[in-house]
Amino acid sequence: MNDWVAYKSIRNVLNREVWKAKKSYFADRLSNCKDPKEFWRTLKQGGVTCGKGNNNIPPDDDINELNKYFADMGQAKDIDENELEYFRTHRMDGIGEGMRFRMVTEEEVKNAMNGVKSRAVGTDQLSIDMIKTKEIFQLLN
């Protein structure tokens, strides 16, 4: 076995062991977190999440194209009938009729918006405070 092959083999073994150790460490640390704040702090300390201002979307990705992709999902023309039948006939016990959408009132929307405590921003860089600004939120009041 030449040096390069030996090096790659040892490197791969070492990387596997490091990965296992990190997995074990985070499983232990995260399972002992007492609240969501401590959970996220642990993830941030480990470099698992990004700091503020970094939304993990590569700069060359068009956020509008991404939005369009998700908004257009589920069009009737895209349904695979065999797959649909599989999911109809293979439901978990206790699920009942599954998910159903219903109309919501303006009051329910206002209550939901007022109930948001997080200061986090989404990929659109809008926080709940920005959404609640008088120009937008007064439309619902």
Provide a brief overview of the structure.
With 141 residues, this protein is mainly alpha-helical.
List the helices and strands and how they pair.
Blueprint: H1 3-31, H2 36-45, H3 63-71, H4 81-89, H5 106-115, H6 128-131, H7 134-137
Descriptive report:
It is a single chain. The protein has helices at 3-31, 36-45, 63-71, 81-89, 106-115, 128-131, 134-137. The protein is mainly alpha-helical and 141 residues long. It has a domain at 1-49.
Tally the helices: what do you get? Answer: 7
| Unreliable segments of 5+ consecutive residues | none
Strand runs, count = 0
Strand content: under 5%
**How would a crystallographer describe the biggest sheet?**
none
Write out key terms for the chains shown.
141 residues, mainly alpha
